[in-house]
Amino acid sequence: MVAHLAVYGCQQNQADGDRLRGFLLEMGYALTDDRGEADLVVLVTCAVRKHAETKLLGHLGTYLHGGKPGRKVVLCGCMAQREEIRELLRKRYKQVSLSFGPADLGRFPIYLRRLEAEGGRHIITSPDTAPIEEGLPVARVIDPELNRANVTIMTGCDNFCSYCVVPYVRGRERSRAPEAVLAEVRGLVEETETPEYDTQNRTFTADRTREIWLLGQNVNSYKPDFPDLLRACGSLDGDFSIRFMTSHPRDAGTRLFEVMARTPHIAPFLHLPVQSGSGAVLKAMNRGYTRTEYLEKIRAAKAVIPGLTLTSDVMVGFPGETEQDFMDTLSLLEEVRFAKLFTFQYSPRAGTPAGEWPQTVSQGEMKERFLRLLEVQKRIEEESGG
Ligand code: SF4
User: Fold this and answer.
1) 217 lines ligand 1 (CB under 6 A)
2) 189: which of 30, 142, 240, 327 is 20 to 30 A away, CA to CA?
3) Per-residue pLDDT reduced to its tens digit, 280-326
């Protein structure tokens, strides 16, 4: 039997995909990049933006046509955790045979065996929250150019930013034990990990991983302590570097920056999503920091970490955002001068507080601000030689 796995969304989904790929191999499936030859298609989905969700539902239709007769489609990831989507799957997307949420990752083989044995459709309501399971198989896709591997250290989020669905689909924060994370990182450094699947050569490779990403929705609230974990991982012997994502500006502080500066294998790289440069918008977003506090953290990080590369996320068109609020965002970009920016246009998500608020910024204004934002960032990158 041949399976095709497609991962949408964030790096955390990529890490979940590594686990699912590991399970598929353990269960005797061969993997293919060509969904046309697959008996089983597994889609790891993202619910953060409505656009991504709509696009994926559109793609689902294509799985009805062509391909192998009897092909089964599995939908997992954040979309599958939304009741609204499960309802749609039950009623309209009958080509999906199995769906389950992110907290159920470890039960994938049980669900799949049941599907193989009984057929039918299994649209499962997974728990919101479950401890992160240890000992799951891993088969990483290593991009030969980037040569990097993801290690999930925590999942879920307790921050409840007013626009974000993550706390509702990934559940509350749960951390892996430091020993388990350290063992996984050590395995990667010492090349004792399970085989790594090379997408270009379509083979498994034992190439050494040189860049390891510690992942979580908010790594800074890792328990018991993120700087300690970072120091332990970055102090291992070997030829590798460590980066991490995503940091929440409220929880990133001097102790973290000092560990970054003093630990041998930690890259001088910090992704610190600001979202907006306006105090009023940050408050409405429930981000938990002010513009001034954010800029103070940036100054502290730059002062402590030599050669620091800073990147960020910015959203335009949040409900209530005025032209002046947007100008405050542009002035923040000028002040910080990020090396790279991930930019988004606000899209309301059902089930979040902001999803209920009137959308005060028209689509036209949002697009116009978005283009101005890109223009400013492009110039900053050019001036910095990026
Ligand atoms: S911190 Fe990030 S993941 Fe958590 S609610 Fe806010 S935007 Fe969502």
Assistant:
1) yes
2) 30
3) 999 999 999 999 999 999 999 999 999 999 999 999 999 999 999 99
Max CA separation in the chain (angstroms) = 61
For residue 263, give every residue at least 6 positions away whose Cβ sits within 8 Å of its Cβ, in sequence order, or none.
230, 231, 234, 235
Contact status, residue 40 vs residue 72, Cβ threshold 8 Å:
yes
Regarding the beta carbon of 219 and ligand 1, being less than 6 Å apart is answered: no
Question: Got the DSSP string for 107-167?
Answer: GHHHHHHHHHHH-S-EE----S--PPPSS----EE--TTT-EEEEE-EE--S---TT--HH
Residues of the chain with pLDDT under 70: 63-66, 144-145, 191-209, 386
* DSSP for residue 385: T
> Are 138 and 19 a contacting pair, CB within 8 Å?
yes
- Please write down the HEC assignment for all residues of 280-313: HHHHHHCCCCCHHHHHHHHHHHHHHCCCCEEEEE
DSSP β-bridge partners for residue 98? 74, 122
How far apart are the C-alpha atoms of 33 and 197, rounded to whole Å? 11
97-142 per-position pLDDT tens digit: 999 999 999 999 999 999 999 999 999 999 888 888 898 988 887 7
What domains are defined for the chain?
2-123 (3.40.50.12160), 139-249 (3.30.750.210), 268-386 (3.30.750.200)
Q: What is the whole-number distance in angstroms between the Cα of residue 215 and the centre of ligand 1?
A: 13
Interval between CA 191 and ligand 1 midpoint (Å): 33
Closest residue by Cα to atom 2, ligand 1, is: 217
pLDDT at 144: 67
Cβ atoms 196, 139 nearer than 8 A: yes
